[in-house]
């Protein structure tokens, strides 16, 4: 059975990113519902999920609404003990919970001055002393987690990807999106998030919507997003090499061109999210690889 997850705008809702990654990264079945975080329909969209007032909020397969990402995380860990949401070792698990709790309640200057946005790097931003102090503490926490995990061959805080990484994904996005100064190890951790296929899928879906002006950045210009450069795909006319959509299995109606080959999808949304970052979508890349042998 599947959960229902209600989220806000993918480009800006950092809390929604946390909630979505809890499901996507750990292969927990869910259906996504976009609530009107900025359109004025949020109260109406969440009316059946009382006492929810904010996104994300989930509804369990047996109909129980759970809001707030900490409560969601613990509920999912309780219901899916074999999914690996927390580190297995007790000491690492305790430290991971500490890091998550501190992130959930702290770093007010970073949150206030550097709202998450996934469009590009804000040019000309000068971090305050309070933001720099938050970054120093974040780097300290990341360094301690990596040292105690003893897993130098992994980019993640405790070796295997865990809820600690879920909660710090929006922090990594803020560091990237405002070009904030951090050390080499922290830069590598940020880069791991930006390259993570699940993170890339989230961003690709957010790019389906455009903004003019861009919220939160006070008119400052944006330069290119620092994550992996997407493959050069463009929307085009058919026919395509495939007859059915790689995601739904339905007949194709909309098309993109990649490396001179035309591929089809069942609707413009499936096509456009793939255009935004083809490598973020395993089903599409597997189809291409299978065809090209």
UniProtKB/TrEMBL annotation:
Ranges of residues in domain GST N-terminal: 12-78
Gene3D superfamilies, sorted: 1.20.1050.10, Glutaredoxin (3.40.30.10)
Pfam families per record: GST_N_2 (PF13409)
InterPro entries recorded: Glutathione-S-Trfase_C_sf, Glutathione_S-Trfase_N, Thioredoxin-like_sf
Gene Ontology BP annotations: glutathione metabolic process; L-phenylalanine catabolic process
Entry superkingdom: Bacteria
GO molecular function annotations of the record: glutathione transferase activity; maleylacetoacetate isomerase activity
Name of the protein in its database record: GST N-terminal domain-containing protein
Protein's organism: Aliiroseovarius pelagivivens
Lineage: Bacteria, Pseudomonadati, Pseudomonadota, Alphaproteobacteria, Rhodobacterales
């Amino acid at each position: 059975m599947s959960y229902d997850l209600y989220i806000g705008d993918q480009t800006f809702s950092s809390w929604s990113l946390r909630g979505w990654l809890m499901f996507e990264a750990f292969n927990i079945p869910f259906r996504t519902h976009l609530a009107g975080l900025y359109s004025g329909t949020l109260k109406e969209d969440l009316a059946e999920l009382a006492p929810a007032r904010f996104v994300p909020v989930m509804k369990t397969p047996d109909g129980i609404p759970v809001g707030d990402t900490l409560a969601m995380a613990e509920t999912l860990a309780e219901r899916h003990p074999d999914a690996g949401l927390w580190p297995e070792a007790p000491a690492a698990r305790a430290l991971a919970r500490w890091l998550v709790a501190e992130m959930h309640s702290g770093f007010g200057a970073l949150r206030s001055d550097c709202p998450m946005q996934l469009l590009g790097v804000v040019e000309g931003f000068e971090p305050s002393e309070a933001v720099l102090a938050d970054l120093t503490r974040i780097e300290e926490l990341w360094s301690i987690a990596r040292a105690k995990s003893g897993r130098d061959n992994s980019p993640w805080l405790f070796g295997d990807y865990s809820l600690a990484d879920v909660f710090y994904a929006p922090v990594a996005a803020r560091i990237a999106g405002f070009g904030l100064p951090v050390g080499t190890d922290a830069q590598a951790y940020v880069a791991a998030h930006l390259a993570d296929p699940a993170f890339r899928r989230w961003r690709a879906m957010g790019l389906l919507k455009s903004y003019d002006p861009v919220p939160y950045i006070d008119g400052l210009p944006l330069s290119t997003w620092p994550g992996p450069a997407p493959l050069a795909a463009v929307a085009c006319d058919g026919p395509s090499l495939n007859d059915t959509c790689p995601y739904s299995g339905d007949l194709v109606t909309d098309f993109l061109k990649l490396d001179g080959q035309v591929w089809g999808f069942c609707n413009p949304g499936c096509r456009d999210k793939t255009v935004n970052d083809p490598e973020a979508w395993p089903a599409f890349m597997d189809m291409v690889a299978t065809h090209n042998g």
